[in-house]
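re: ur question from yesterday

yeah so i grabbed the chain u mentioned. its 720 aa long if i counted rite. heres the sequnce exactly as i have it in my notes:
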Amino acid sequence: MQPSVLRAASETFFIEMPPFDLDSVLREDSVNAENMRGSYRFAYKFYTNIDINNGIQTVLPDGTTVKQIGIRSAGAYSINLLLRDFEIPPGGKLFIYSADRSHVVGSFDYRNNSDDKILPVRPVAGEAITVEYSEPANVSFRGHFIISEVNHDYRDVLRMEPNPDNKPDNIKDYACMPDVLCSDAAEETVRSTVLLIIDGTYMCTGSLLNNTSDDGKPYLLTGVHCFVKDTNVAFPTDKDSYIDKVGTIIAFFNYNRPVCDANILMKGSEEMSLAGASPSVIVSRKDIALLELKDTVPDYFNVYYAGWNRDMTGSGQHTNIHHPKAAVKKYGRADGNISISSYPMPTVFDANSHWLIPGWTIGSTYGGSSGSPLFDENKLVIGGLTGGNSTCSGTSPGGQSDYFTILGLGWETGDSTNQLKTYLDPANKGVMQYPGKDPNSTNPIVRLANAQYTKGDSLITSALDSPNQGYVFGTGNQPTEEFAEAFTVTKSAEIFGVFLLIPPIVSVNPGDVTISVYTGNSSPKTKIYSTGFMPRYMNYSSTSGFIFGDKNLYSAPTETFVVFDSTITVRSKFFVSYSIKNSSDNQFCVYNTKFGNTSHPNTAWVKDAAKGWISADAYAVKPLKTSLAIQPLVRNVNNTDSVPESNGFYYDRSGGILSLFKPLEKDGQAAVYSTAGLLMENVIIPSGQTSVSLIARPKGTIGIVKITSENFTAKGKIIY
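ran it thru and got these structure tokens back, copy pasting raw so excuse formatting
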């Protein structure tokens, strides 16, 4: 984006698409939908014949020729293109970007050439885009293409997603706000705070609250103003007025930066989200909104339902966890007592309806922080953010004030159907405060990691040494096809899914990366599960409801959570791998680790196409003692789903795998009988092997397993 390149800035630069009758198009879509004809249409197609050679040309000092064409279609949410006669030489690069240059697609190069000379280009945000092709002077032939279709997105398929938080302006705005991982924020306050994206276009923050029945109802506290279009006039008081907007909420859980490293501003995982909510309490004059999510929060989200305090003394230290501008969670702290005050909008809010934070000791708030929880010194919620003027002045708070709602003022309103007491104290205990709830406290969910990126270990991207090309643990010119990380658990454990920490060099087609789980005593041996790597996030469109879009993996380091279709049970040692489909389009790797402690053992593995699995520190091409940034989410198995350990084996119903806790010294066999005593299956177990596959049976079938070998016998019941 050099200024010398971007000379084409006048209004006449853009080729205008003609207007069309959107109402007529939508009526046609409605008829087609009712008749179940065709697929979902989101764009109006203009057939064009725009030759790149007719674009504005600039020749740079090194001889590179840059050709630019602007395309505008008034009112388009985004524009996507179809290019024909597409053939460009090595060295040529094509970018398509929005007029404000905030959304860039590309580069495309000679590897995108195809026999049919066609290149479809994904949507680029905005009603005006620039097509820019650059070509060095000494190429083998001159590149060429024609823009044959311009597609006007009238349904807004590119919706807002959580913010990557790594743009220069964002870094400046958030400079005084520590990431929660890099602060002294209490774990329970972090796990209870939620990012909210509303109507696919704007954002707020909320917090999960416990109630006196301790039943895990997903109540969410936020601000009424998050759902109001005009915030300068009194808000509607009827909570039914908020049903539609509240119904568009997408709540993102655990959107945290996983690595405390100023050089790696990593996006958190976006896969833990729930769609839709309903208003339970709307106290508009005090900006208090209590919502109930439409779905129960899954166990593996590992959330915390925060406790609350309706006392109004305001004494002690207070903290705030929030998502400014939909960024990863940030932390703020105000030392000293706070006071009750009036928000400076008397026509909208009642007098003395807010807590006043006169200034922050650490942190600040920002747009998108609205609704975020204010915790007292006992980590109990006492209100949510309405607004204020606080800013960052470099890495220090600017000193301005913020206003938070007062939870206690919404407790009783005279309307039992619209007051906090009804929902937060259903047991009618009459208490002033109530503790939080961790639904997984008796059997914690743990994120396994072989490296500690906040305690001396660091993320790196290991490249192959010249003359080789590519990555040690990803695409390259070596015959490696799969990469794995080893883990050990002391008890039977179930895996919900795995986190992958990925550098921003990803160019991979969805589904071309496969995640697998292996068992094995020393190296990956028996594959028990596989699933595709499909990094997507949920968004909302006013015309199509909740839909999924592809995650942006190229603009920032990204944490992605791959959730398994069902939990996978493992015992002792297991391995999580990723394999990459061999294609010139794919460029993919996962971060690996530089250990702070040189005595740390290697846990990474590489699979050679000819030699099989090789420990990374014995990989002749480039031996490394390292760990891959793969982190399974696990918890101990409930023994009702597996054979007790005393039997010497266990059965993973999801994968159909029978596993021994210890390998047999001599060859043996596993015989499976029905409850009537009929032999259903007999499987040989070679010495040294710890797992075998059993034939699938109808769910709920009971089998009696007898394992025999020289000097060893085990028997017990399994349930398919």
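noticed a couple things. Confidence is low (pLDDT under 50) at residues 1-11, 32-40, 639-646. also The domain at 168-434 is CATH 2.40.10.10 (Thrombin, subunit H).
anyway ttyl
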